[in-house]
Structures are given as C-alpha cells and as structure tokens.
User: Fold Sugar transporter SWEET1 from Crenichthys baileyi.
Amino acid sequence: MDLTPLLSWACIVFTVGMFSTGLTDLRKMRESKSADNIQFLPFLTTCLNNLGWLFYGILKMDHTIIVVNVIGALLQILYIVMYFRYTKQKQLVMLQTLAAAAVLICGWLYFTTFLTEGDARLHQLGLTCSVVTVSMYLSPLTDLVAIIRSGNVQVLSFPLTVATFFTSTAWVLYGLQLNDYYIMVPNTPGIFTSLIRFYLFWKFASTSQSLPSYKPLHI
Assistant:
C-alpha cells in the first residue's frame, strides 16, 4: 500500500499548523503595539530554512516540499515585516535581515553557479538544509536545561510542542517512504526534543502553576 499521498497531506497540514503558531505572537504585537518579549531570530532563521528547502523541493520536483515551504516562507516574511513595524530596535533588526539576505544570495550563487550537475547540487543542498534544520531543532536544548534546573515550564509553548512532534513524525515517515535521508534524518531530533518537552510538562506542570505567572516566551 502506497502511503505517500496520505503522508504528503499530513506533512502539509501539520507543518502549516506549526508555522501558524507564530500568529499568536503576531496577535500579541498588534494588540500591544510592541515586539517586546518576542524573539526575532526564529522568524528569520525559519524563513531562510524554508527558502533552502523550497529550492531543494524544486530541484527534486517534490510538490509537498514546495507547497509547505512556500506557505512557510510567506508566513515568516509576514512575521518579519510585522516585527519590524512594532520593534524599537529597527536598526538591529534591519542589520540581521540584511545579513540573512547576504547569506541567502551567497548560497544561491554557490548552488546555481559552481554546482551545475543536478545530483551533486541536490545532495549538497539537502545536506546543507539538513544541518540547518537539525541545529534549529537542537538550539533550545540549553533552555531545556535551564527549565530542568528551575522546574518552571511556563516559558514553553505546549501547542507548539504538540505541533512540532506531529510535524517531525510526519516528515520522518514521509522521508522513509521516499527513501530520502535528507528529509528523514533532520526531522528525527524534532521528535526527541518534543518528547523531552512532554516529559517536562508532565513533571513540572503542577509546580509551575503555583509560581507567579508572566508573559511566556515561545521556545
């Protein structure tokens, strides 16, 4: 039985749902007219990651990867524009955005000018995107260590954790179905980090409820 169509739709639905969790931050920015306590770099790095995977999907002619990352990139651009509108650190945000654009342009020139053979370009691009994706999944580990020490899970987003778990699982199964390790391997850490977060919610949720509440930072 070919499960590829089912897994394709699962990847699209779960991933778009995960990207849409940023709408919560967007609503907070519009209501408060401020970008305080909201992190900018996750929007920027996710946008770069989306554009890299979009190029990979185009080279591979994979419509699932293309659709997901077109939607993801557009959402991240929306978040970036709205963040720039409400932030007080416009100069810093502009510099970070220009640096990201420079990285994107250099990457584009490298993969389109120096790598002309399709297979070599596809493999190197897949490897690059995989490394970036793994680093994004593993980057919150230092925050998780701090949460274990403090016993406070209020800085974690439970909906985002659920979305990440189902998204990562769907992509791992999709990559396994296509025998594409560049899809399967980088999404595996997302499953493990989500399971760690679920454990932290189970272990510290009752403790955190007794602590003073404050505006959460999504990790």
The chain is about 80% helix and 0% strand. Residues 173 and 184 are 7 Å apart (CA to CA). The longest helix spans residues 181-209. Residues 209-219 have pLDDT under 50 and may be disordered.
